[in-house]
Amino acid sequence: MPIVRIALPVPIPQLFDYTAEDASHEDIGRCVRVPFGGGEKSGLIVDLPVDADVDATRLKAVRHIQREVSPLPADWLELAAFTARYYHAALGEVVALALPPGLRRADAVRDLAADPLLAPSAAGAAVLAAPRRASRALRLLQHLAAQAPQRRSALRAHADGEAVGELLRKGWAEVVREGAPLVSGTLPILTAEQHAAVDAIAATATGYAAWLLHGVTGSGKTEVYLRLAANALAAGRQVLMLVPEIALTPQLEARVAARFAGAEIVALHSGLAEGARSRGFVRALEGHADIVLGTRLAVFAPLPRLGLILIDEEHDASYKQQEGVRYSARDLAVWRARQRAVTVVLGSATPSLESWQHARSGRYRYQVLSQRALASALPEVRCIDTRRLKLDEGLSAALQSAIAARLEAGEQSLVFLNRRGYAPVLSCPACGWVSTCPHCSANLVVHLADRRLRCHHCGCDGPIPRTCPSCGNHDIQPFGRGTQRIEARLAELFPRARVLRVDRDSARTRAQWEALLATIAAGEADILVGTQMMAKGHDFPRLTLVGVVGADASLHAADFRAPERLFQQLMQVGGRAGRAHLAGEVLIQTEYPEHPLYRCLATHDFDAFAAMALDERRSAGFPPHTFQAMLRADAPLLQDAVAFLREAAAVAAGLAPAQVHIYDPVPMRLTRLSRRERAQLLVEAAERGALQSFLGAWLGALRGLRTPRTLRWNVDVDPLEV
Ligand SMILES: Nc1ncnc2c1ncn2[C@@H]1O[C@H](COP(=O)(O)OP(=O)(O)OP(=O)(O)O)[C@@H](O)[C@H]1O
Ligand SMILES: [Zn+2]
């Protein structure tokens, strides 16, 4: 009887053999359900071995093979295997992460029929012409009318997308004939730099090439992506477009859908309902989807006709998964481009130092967009020296009057503060009590909007006490400032202005987020108070002033990547100012106006900053000049976590070649998280290969160690946080 070898989601690097009566080589790459332990697990057939690893008579039989959809192709299995190897994870875990849950469970995949193009029908047009009460269906119809035709799946993705069935039932929308033009709408005339970039990148389109597209904020990188995508689509190829957080980029989704009305666009991200995710994945797998637009996990989309990979905001930390299999979608995308011999474009106004270094060394090709597409200039950036100033709830007089001037002119301002909540801690001046999280080594943040004290790490919360829980003092005070406090003060200072706070508390759902964006875009907000959510990618033509408060705190953070992140964040958020025809200005409140980081910001000199930061990294022996991996352990008791890491370090000492450096175990900065104490051990090498082969041997040995039941450990290759 045929034997099938299966990758199952278990945390050990082992494959499992089963028998399957009717299995053939055609089944490699198919999902299966198998008995496992007392229950059932689902996994993927990766091989059809001639002989089993164990006595064949003891093998159990698979329960079900999913044969409704095409098997995952060999190149996809290679991608999964590479991911498992490089990040030292079990293949089954990679498969579990990469496949949509429904497909992996070998469930039936429904609704695989083509994704029809829809447009308003005559009845729909009549509905739009007559005044009627607002409803979901009406809003969706209006949206469709503004951008018809649209794929059913694209409509589904709209905030009112649930009404798509209703629209069809009511006859307000109809299916339009295929063969609609691939590219629709009027195309903007490219700037000279955009033109040069498109030409240069298109010239390498016949094989593997990695491009860093370094375009200043507002330079029109998106337009370059769209033109390159159009070329690939015209050549009959599929395009993979990665974005940092799809919930943050509904605008981009809409833009892509509007540009390529005749193309099938599939969104892939973890926010989708299971059915939609399976469906999109299978549409890509079977070669129907033309464009796959998604967050990091979309890098695992199977794409038989792949022709181009685009990575927007390539520097963004969200491309790195921070739990489970800690992969970097950006790095995997580059590997994938090489594997499939296609072009990959990494775009950013503030490239990661890793990518910038690759561009310098010639590993990546390099294309610059130095001018903004619409605006005549980048915003003017100035520091407000706050050392001798009296601030009003953190706001300087200069910033206040700049905001007042924008109000007067009918323009928008953004106050950027990367700390949500009202105040980072509640404290008692009498006895020194502070609000600390019972589960984490962190303070509880005051959220005045819903009157709670909340931990931003474990999420636990409770009411705000009226008196000090320790001494009974009535006069306990919120200490420090978050977005809610700034919002409240701005509302007092500018009573006639419409102040809008944009952070993860005010935009908890995608619908809330889209509503906020729509409010801003419609000019119905005058002063925005926002966290880094506001920094990414947005394009609001009337936003002309960005005020930065509280950035100094990150200047002296312990993580060696902190300056890079701060610079990127400030350049990005500053880049929201003056993107269209109104001049922009960025005011940074700081006690260190002479700091080189701020000076580089003021001159928009990313290259100077990057060169400086890379020099520092070289002398300190940090990435990208070295390669790192982090072994982390957590347990209810810190001593258990540290003891394990000490043992791991001792094992490493016996295995590591001279060029691999093993650091001492240390508690993590946020030592306690959700009642578990955490510690880490850094290993570093001058070469990736040396690190990789050491890791293989070391982790193998660690898996054999006896550890307390309550201890967990994991490895993070190329960690972003150290
Ligand atoms: N060739 C062009 N002609 C006219 N307008 C353009 C052109 N290219 C881009 N734009 C417009 O310029 C603005 C900035 O473009 P886009 O948002 O793509 O910039 P970006 O490079 O992605 O910037 P960021 O990195 O800051 O997000 C947008 O409003 C876009 O529509
Ligand atoms: Zn907590």
General description of the model:
The protein has 722 residues and is an alpha/beta fold. It has five domains: 3-104, PriA, 3(prime) DNA-binding domain (GIY-YIG endonuclease, 3-Layer(aba) Sandwich); 117-175, no CATH class; 192-369, P-loop containing nucleotide triphosphate hydrolases (Rossmann fold), CATH 3.40.50; 380-420 and 482-615, P-loop containing nucleotide triphosphate hydrolases (Rossmann fold, 3-Layer(aba) Sandwich); 627-717, Alpha-Beta Plaits (2-Layer Sandwich). A seven-stranded parallel sheet has the order 11-12-10-13-14-9-15, sandwiched between helices. A hairpin with a 2-residue loop joins strand 29 (666-673) and strand 30 (676-685). Helix 20 crosses helix 21. The longest helix has 18 residues, at 638-655. The chain is globular and about 80 Å long. The two termini are 51 Å apart. The model has no long low-confidence stretch (mean pLDDT 92). It comes from Pseudothauera lacus. Zn(2+) 2 binds at residues 437, 440, 455, 458. Zn(2+) 1 binds at residues 428, 431, 468, 471. One of its GO terms (cellular component) is primosome complex. Its cofactor is Zn(2+).
